[in-house]
Design a protein that fits this description.
The chain has 198 residues and is an alpha/beta fold. 50% of the residues lie in helices and 11% in strands. The chain is globular and about 50 Å long.
């Protein structure tokens, strides 16, 4: 079963990469000054850990490097252009056809969830994790990995991830926050026995 999950995860990763290239080539007007490697795609959940199933959705977020030297207007324009690329990519992956769609996409793990922007500067992402993220968002980093983006962006993400996961936490603080985490209940004995026979 592990081999199947690994193969499904590798397939999804390859399809996301192909869809990103297609999104970049078919945008109108084209993004001539944006390279696809500038967009980092972070996979969480089953895709991040290589455990994708046949009906799994893709938990992904999008980040990019924002040079500190550019003006506010240039930064806003860059975010707008990358947002267009992300929206096109998500459309390609989720559009309904007579044969169905490739995947369901879940973007809720991005900073500030549904109220957040679809693409986030990496520095802002790191600041969010440090200052505002919930405990379960830190837990989700255990299985997170970057599946697209240039090497420098991936190295920075891994450094951020490692820093957050290795942060010392106070037991009393964790005890207060744990009830807010979503905990999947264990199946009843009867249900567990039934599941084991499938």
């Amino acid at each position: 079963m592990h081999d199947v999950s690994h193969a499904l995860s590798a397939l999804a990763e390859a399809l996301v990469g192909q869809a990103l290239d297609s999104a970049h080539k078919t945008l109108v007007p084209p993004l001539l000054d944006i390279d696809t490697a500038e967009l980092g795609i972070i996979a969480y959940g089953k895709l991040g850990s290589g455990e994708l199933g046949y009906n799994s959705d893709l938990d992904i977020i999008f980040v990019y490097d924002q040079p500190s030297s550019i003006s506010a207007s240039a930064a806003a324009e860059r975010r707008y252009r990358l947002s267009r690329l992300v929206q096109r990519l998500v459309h390609i992956l989720t559009v309904r056809t007579p044969a169905g769609n490739l995947y369901e996409i879940d973007l809720r793990l991005r900073p500030d969830g549904r109220s957040g922007t679809v693409v986030t500067p990496l520095d802002a992402y790191a600041q969010y994790l440090q200052d505002s993220a919930w405990t379960w968002e830190h837990q989700a980093l255990v299985r997170a990995r970057m599946i697209s983006g240039d090497g420098a962006l991936e190295e920075r993400f891994e450094a951020i991830r490692k820093d957050i996961l290795l942060t010392t936490r106070q037991p009393t603080t964790l005890a207060r926050r744990l009830p807010t985490c979503v905990i999947k209940p264990l199946p009843s004995t009867a249900a567990a026995q039934q599941a084991s026979t499938i």
